[in-house]
Amino acid sequence: MSTEQEITEMFDRISPTYDRTNTALSFGLDRLWRKKMIKNLPKKSNASLLDVATGTGEVLLEAFKQDKIQMGMGVDLASQMIKLAKEKFIASPFRPQANFAVANAQSLPFEEESFDAVTMAYGIRNVQDVDIALSEMHRVLRKEGRVLILEFSLPKSTLLKNLHLFYLRNILPNIGQLISKSKSSYVYLNQTIESFPYGSAFVKHLQKAGFTNCKALPILGGITTLYIGDK
After folding, report:
1. pLDDT tens digit string along 210-219?
2. DSSP 8-state secondary structure symbol assigned to residue 111
3. What's the predicted TM-score (pTM) here?
4. What is the arrangement of strands in the sheet containing 141-152, beginning at the earlier edge strand?
5. Which residues of 14-34 are buried (b: 16+ CB within 10 A; e: fewer)?
């Protein structure tokens, strides 16, 4: 496994092309997946949201567009990602309601019960200790709060799984190289998808962290999965 510093440096390196590459690699479906996640936020007026591994702030932007939150906080270990997120929100009508900071998912710099919801899109598999990160999310959630985690997974169908693995191993790194000029970064990202626990295995991690009503909702045959847990 790569070290935390190596992973952070990798994301800093690919940050200028990150959004464009994600859209190309998912054929634009990443936007629909984020929309689905945001639709599952708890219904609450004046809701606050913490987005962990926020990248360039796309999840927060979608949450504001859907009028699901009043205040949003985005954190990421990669300082260049945070810089781009801040720049993105300068031209946004939601700028006064959004804040960003460099922070570690395993040591969130917030008091207990600070947020109504916590989200994380395609970042949990890059965390060094998943259980610590989930426990931190549980800690900063208010009672009756909800965690929503989007992560890549592997389909149950043998045919679809084999096709997906072929894409991950042979096509994804080359597209990543074409756009970001960093093939090794996307080889690493593919390897984390194949090795990371998904489905019921990941639900057990949520339950271990103290979440209840935990669910794994496969999307597009299980290419990606939305995990939901309540406090």
Report:
1. 999 999 999 9
2. -
3. 0.91
4. 98-102, 71-76, 48-52, 115-121, 141-152, 224-230, 212-219
5. bbebbbebbebbbeeebeebb
